[in-house]
Write a structure and sequence with these properties.
Butyryl-CoA Dehydrogenase, subunit A, domain 3, four-stranded mixed beta sheet, Butyryl-CoA Dehydrogenase, subunit A, domain 2, six-stranded mixed beta sheet
């Protein structure tokens, strides 16, 4: 059962304890509730692709730990460049299939590979057996074909204070108690993607910590329905359409969540860091390197769909898509820029201490800056091609289309080319709106971390003094030209 079917995936979610809330109510079945069924549908399409010969090569791989066993790629180990590039290929396909993010196929996958490298270091220094625990869990995850989201971002509290200084210790997830058989954790994780569609959640420290913050140096994996965990799915302004019938939004989508851990017991076999604060920063370093390399494929995949959405709108409006060829070329260049920068970061990477691949941090973080800018240009062009029906908000709802009194008149008003129905134009317009203004917008700006944070890494890794020395020698300057000392205040 290492490669699961859609049906088996949906059944695994139905069997879980309800602990997800949205719009003020408990969701009894995430696979059918209007508030969560679209993100589940998005993830389910990955299982379809895994079982489709056309896509199976990109969606499955050979297990490192189960000889001769095929597994879902998102459960695999990224031991070399080919495997980490497979991460990007899968992400771009998923955006092409869904138009949106599938976080349960992303963050947990990266987390297990990052922890493989970090546990090699902690085990060596402290004599722990974290990597053996991790291996056991990975094997079970591969056998069961789990969907595993990841939780890094803490609520944080006062940004001027470290976690141990906060008036509310729960503003960051922390270890409350260490027992012989496990740990007890509490606190808040926020802005977590794909949780409702996941079987388990991989928890990582939200930052690099000092000794005073050692209780926050924590990594473990928990079932999504663990006792003591309450999940609240968040919303965007356009999310209210989720509760409506019809085609105002697509059948796919993504949700974010806040997670509230209250005295959750995690057994030792699921704990991979417990107060080893020295290596919490290394987790962030390795995680962001691969994640910010691969996220270039995410926005490229959605950009592919935006080019397609622009072509649909042009044709249904009665124009050839080639009318907007120059604009579509600009969109394509944006897509390939983030995708190629991510691949370049991977190609310049190397194996980490445990043998898993780590992309080049400088290029990966530079890519994150482009991810926070270029997709918005692509969205603007998509709106431009679509016209006012996409961007101005002047468009009737599905319910108005179906109104028996004035609905037929609306259809006549919306219809453009005689070749296509009014509904086709309505669906195309809503798709462009959803991709550029609504819930289909991925976290380009802050998803995977802020661009300002990425710029700090680029600044730290750019050897300005070395570059100045190259310039000094080419210019024929014999004396040294160091940075001036800072003036004392």
């Amino acid at each position: 059962m290492a490669v699961k079917t859609r049906k088996e995936y949906l059944e695994s979610l139905k069997a879980m304890r309800p602990n997800v809330y949205k719009f003020g109510k408990l969701i009894e079945d995430v696979t059918t509730d209007p508030a969560t069924k679209r993100t589940v549908e998005s993830h389910a399409r990955a299982f379809d692709a895994s079982n489709d010969p056309q896509y199976a090569e990109d969606f499955t791989t050979d297990s490192t730990f189960l000889p001769g066993e095929k597994i879902h790629r998102w459960s695999g180990m990224m031991e070399g460049l080919d495997q980490v590039m497979g991460n990007s290929k899968l992400k771009r396909w998923m955006y092409r299939f869904t138009g949106s993010c599938t976080g349960g196929l992303c963050v947990g996958w990266n987390a297990q590979n990052v922890l493989w490298n970090v546990t090699a270091m902690t085990d060596k220094e402290f004599g722990t057996n974290y990597q053996q625990r991790l291996k056991k869990w990975i094997i079970e995850s591969q056998k069961k074909g789990l969907v595993v989201s990841g939780a890094l971002t803490d609520a944080k509290g006062d940004r001027a204070m470290r976690p141990s200084q906060q008036s509310n210790p729960d503003s960051n997830v922390h270890i409350k108690e260490v027992r012989p058989d496990g740990i007890v954790i509490s606190g808040y994780k926020t802005m977590i993607c794909g949780v409702a569609a996941s079987n388990e959640v991989f928890i990582l420290p939200g930052s690099g910590y000092r000794e005073d913050d050692q209780d926050y140096a924590l990594s473990c994996v928990v079932p999504r329905d663990i006792e003591g965990l309450t999940i609240v799915e968040t919303r965007r302004a356009s999310d209210s359409r989720e509760l409506e019938e019809g085609w105002d939004i697509p059948d796919s989508g993504i949700t974010q969540a806040y997670m509230f851990f209250e005295d959750c017991f995690v057994p030792n076999e699921r704990v991979f860091m417990c107060k080893e604060f020295k290596y919490s920063g290394k987790i962030i370093e390795y995680f962001t390197a691969n994640y910010r390399a691969c996220i270039g494929a995410c926005v490229a995949g959605q950009g592919d769909v935006m080019i397609g959405a622009g072509a649909l709108m042009a044709r249904i409006n009665g124009l050839a898509a080639s009318t907007f060829a120059n604009k579509m070329v600009d969109m394509a260049v944006n897509n390939e820029t983030t995708y190629a920068m991510g691949i370049g970061a991977m190609a310049l990477g190397k194996k980490g201490p445990g043998g898993m691949w780590v992309s080049d941090s400088l290029i990966a973080h530079a890519n994150k800056v482009h991810v926070a800018t270029l997709p918005y240009v692509t969205k603007r062009i998509c709106q431009d091609i679509g016209g006012g029906i996409v961007e101005t908000g002047c468009f009737p709802s599905y319910a108005d289309f179906k109104n028996p009194v004035y609905g037929p008149t609306i259809e006549k008003a919306v219809k453009a080319s005689d070749k296509y129905s009014a509904e086709a134009r309505a669906r195309a317009a809503r798709l462009s709106e959803w991709l550029t203004l609504g819930a289909g917008v991925p976290g380009c700006m802050h998803g995977g971390g802020s661009p300002d944070g990425a710029k700090l890494v680029v600044r730290a890794l750019t050897p300005i003094d070395q570059f100045a020395d190259y310039a000094r020698k080419i210019a024929g300057i014999k004396e040294q030209v160091p940075e001036p000392e800072k003036k004392k205040k």
